[in-house]
Amino acid sequence: MVSFIVRMTFAADDREEIAGLLRPLTLASRQEPGCVNYVAHFVEGEPCTVLIYEQYKDEAALEHHRNTPHFQQYVTGGLYHKMGGRQLENLTAVC
What we know:
alpha+beta, Alpha-Beta Plaits
């Protein structure tokens, strides 16, 4: 299992546009055969911060995700152009 959290920051004026990118990205990502979990959040108390929790069955499933048309459209072509910062936290399940 591959699990991680992506934390991104955006300008306050972009919040609705970011939500508009995250909704279809989330729906499409959840349909991928190797996706276990994909949940995008706005962080309470930090209106310019988005946190995405992602889980894939293996590295191949993650690589597939990164090469999908929806990733290219909403992440590479959208979120990456709008974000002010990005932090990745890899996770290891306890059990």
